[in-house]
Amino acid sequence: MSNKNSNNMIFKRKILPKLLDNIENNKIIILTGPRQVGKTTLLKMIYTEIVQKAKAIFLDMDLTANQEFGKDLDKFINYLTLSGYSQKEERFYVFVDEFQRLSEMTMVFKNIYDNYPNIKIFASGSSSLSIKKSAKESLAGRKFIFEIFPLDFEEFLDFKEDEEARRYFKNINNLQEGKVTLPQKLQELWEEFFVFGGYPEVVLQSDYQEKKKILKSIFDLYAEKDAMLFLGVENIWAYKKIIQLLAVDSGSLLNYNNLAKESGIHNKTVRSYISMLEETYLIKILHPFSANKHNEIIKSPKVYFIDNGVRNYFLNNFNKLEKRADKGSVFESYVIQEIIKNNTKNYNIKFWRTKQKDEVDFIMEEENKILPVEAKFSSLGKVDDMRNVQKFLFQYDQEIGYILNGNFKKIAEKDGKKIMFNVAINFTQDLLK
Fold first, then answer.
1. Is residue 67 domain-shared with residue 172, that is, in the same domain?
2. Is 160 found in the same domain as 132?
């Protein structure tokens, strides 16, 4: 990888300024998220920024030689002292990559926070059930956790370094109402993002066959290390089978009994595996929105993949959108992925479905605000496209709903309700503001 691309990986992530804003506080900063999304790169960027003006060390816990230092507090402090740390001096910065390698590390972090106020810790780790649980219990009130996801589409364009496409993207929302024809270059890049997703190494590779190989290497390692070694998955065949079945049924209601039957494992084990998949950021579970238990679905959740490249890898389907029977599902997944990656206000994301099968794809809740969002790739503002969103708005006395689509822009108003038809290539700045 060239230095030029490496710099892009560091400087183009939206979350970087937020991380740099946390240099001066005393909280333990933890970066978590799936494998290979740039957590280590972000840590190194912050380290490079700090080491120019303060004392700092960087520890990679993937290296066996370093793991000995993290097994207890005394060993860790001894190592820091040998590296230049002194209790009598100014702040000392410690960067620990892949800290989930050692179960003892969270307790070491707790003791450092409580007893060594001039040590500031930045740490990263691929999320696992054990790490999240131990961090929640041991580091309560002592940490800020930042979730690092694959690139969103705006970041994807930054990595592609196509100034023309980025200019088109920025100005999409300035277009007048009506059908929108995307420039060919921007359309092609959007199509590539639908197919191969936003894992940085995949994005930076231009050859499609190499992209597939990179996705394979990432998830072979995921199965070998995260699933077997850290999560303790005993039946790796069934675990992978569950992922493949979820990929086929992405956006559908979860049926645990069917998954158990197809994978040959117990229903309880299926639920455990799905929980693991969510905790390791492969999938996102959405629960139903309900205020009327007699009329609405209140139990069965839906599942989406965090990245379309991952889903397509497990489907073994890298066809372009126009050649796919699941085009609607791919587009719907793209919309929820962009919402998740840009959800700075921490909207609670659910879905709405009645027993009469009226449905809105995504319901976003924030305090007294409830926002229905429908994903319809081919929508051109027809009355039928608005029906379910309108029903929701009237039932819950809300004013605005969104219908995100491939190439149409319009504001429709009826009976005091407003429905925004937006081109989904760039919707988060308007929707999540």
1. no
2. no
Contact 335, 423 (CB under 8 A): no
Buried b / exposed e over 32-71, threshold 16 CB at 10 Å, is bbbbbbbbbbbbbbbbebbeeeebbbbbebeeeebbebbe
Q: What is the domain extent for residue 83?
A: 3-147
> Number of helices and strands (H, E) in the chain?
19, 14
Collect all residues with Cβ–Cβ distance below 8 Å to 202 and sequence separation of at least 6: 196, 211, 214, 215, 309
Q: What is the DSSP letter of 407?
A: S
191 and 163 within one domain: yes
Decide: pTM greater than 0.90.
yes
Residue ranges of the chain whose pLDDT lies below 70: 1-12, 127-133, 293-298
Report in angstroms the alpha-carbon separations of 271 from 33, 122, 276: 21, 33, 9
pLDDT tens figures, 176-216: 999 999 999 999 999 999 999 999 999 999 999 999 999 99
For residues 112 and 165, state if they share a domain. Answer: no
Q: How many domains does the chain have?
A: 2
Residue with tokens 């001039």, as numbered in its chain: 118
For 326-338, the pLDDT digits (tens) are: 999 999 999 999 9
